[in-house]
Amino acid sequence: MHLIGVQGMPRRVSDYADQFATWNLIISFSSFVLGLSSLVFLYNMIVSWRSGPKAVGNPWNALTIEWQVSSPPPIFNFDAIPSVVGGPYEYGVPGAVHAVLKEAEPVAAGAAAGTSEGAH
User: What is the reported pTM?
Assistant: First the structure.
């Protein structure tokens, strides 16, 4: 549409000059194809949403820390601060470990779960 506008086609008129007829037909056909492809996408999205399989917690088997938390994440993400032990590019290394998640230390009822030192 931009090209035929640059060539001088007026906007919002009931009939067009013959020199623009072919381009108007191509543009009209293309808009219908684009609309139909949007309907196909919408149909696929609705069918997948209603009856598709549920994704597992870590579908890509990622090693980074954010994928080690359940979804939805708990309030504080981790019970204890994890230690990062691996490099960022060890995805192809068999047996590579990216983080070590410590077990949470038991806290007595009514006691604070740690100190506020180092908190933001």
Answer: 0.42
